[in-house]
Amino acid sequence: MTMLSSDLPLPRLGRGKVRDIYDAGDDRVLLLTTDRISAFDVVMAETIPMKGAVLTQISAWWFRQLEGLVPHHMISADAGEIVSAVPALKPHRAAIAGRAMLCKRTTVFPIECVIRGYLSGSAWKEYAAQGTLAGEKLKPGLLESEKLAPAIFSPATKAESGHDENITIARMRSILGDEVTTILERMTRTVYDKGEGVARGRGIIIADTKFEFGRDKNGNIILIDEVMTPDSSRFWATDVYKVGQPQPSFDKQPLRDWLDVERRAGHWNGEAPAPTLPQNVVDATSKRYLEAYRRVTGSELKVEA
Fold first, then answer.
1. Could you list the residue range(s) of the whole structural domain that residue 234 is in?
2. Which of 33, 186, 234, 286 is the most buried (most CB within 10 A)?
């Protein structure tokens, strides 16, 4: 069963491109990850089977690996435990299985904490054109997909629609203050270092990733949202990695590639609505997400209602 949208008997707090957010009471929220998928800032009409469960359960797996390292918002990603904690969801247990996470409610910081271990994506485009990242000079002579040592902390503003904007750390300090900025950078590096080491041992390079943080009801700064998923990160296979060129990634690459072809052929102008996705693209994208889960966690994804 795939899910395009949800309708749970809880107050809805928000709806993003992929996630629906509900008030679960007692300073808790329910994050419900649908099978919606977006590319080039356009949400597709079709769903990708198992995508919501992959994103939720990879995040849950990482949160468990981070226990004792950084505080986080996850209470449970188990459907049975969630239903026990929020009885109103009992009739919807099958719908939320695998794709729901019960979390501590926080006040979210309005900054995406991006960390780049390799030079790729928008960072590479800016560097290739100007030799900078968010307007700050990097050393000359770097190649596309080259490892950055140390990794670069590269915050961005959170955009409700369209692309986030890379900003300098100085700009982040002006928004959040020195103390919070220092804490968020330290926590970002701690989580990335842990994740990059674990993933590399499983044949995956986490080229870059983004984290979000918030304050809980006691004022503690904690890690929230999704963590090192194929949607929030660039996953590359170590066995085919080659510096100086783009890398194939474990995410929505089949979808992006197909849309690129449609755009170049003049079949799509890059705006909503997107063209209807052929079944082979849907299937290939679903397989890519499931393979990312298997590679990262070392096991096949099993969802039990």
1. 108-240
2. 33
166/146 Cα distance (integer angstroms)? 19
Nearest-Å Rg of the Cα atoms of the chain is: 19
Angle at 207 between CA 206 and CA 208, to 5 degrees: 95
pLDDT tens by residue, 21-58: 999 999 999 999 999 999 988 999 999 999 999 999 99
Angle at CA of residue 215, ends 210 and 219, nearest 5°: 150
Please identify, among 219, 240, 261, the residue that sits at the C-terminal boundary of a domain. 240
Please give the structure tokens belonging to residue 72: 């986080």
Whether residue 128 is found in the same domain as residue 206:
yes
Residue with tokens 């797996």: 61
What is the model's pLDDT at position 160?
61
CA dihedral sign, ordered 5, 26, 222, 170:
positive
Residue of 301, 305, 304 lying closest to 55 (CA atoms): 301
> What tens digit of pLDDT does each residue of 88-128 get?
999 999 999 999 999 999 999 999 999 999 999 889 999 99
Sheet with 19-25, strands from edge to edge, namely: 12-15, 19-25, 28-33, 100-104, 74-76
Sort 43 into a burial class: Cβ within 10 Å, 0-12 / 13-18 / 19+: middle
Q: Other CB atoms closer than 10 Å to residue 15's CB: what's the count?
A: 14
pTM of the shown model: 0.94
Check which CATH number belongs to the domain holding 34 and give it.
Answer: 3.30.200.20
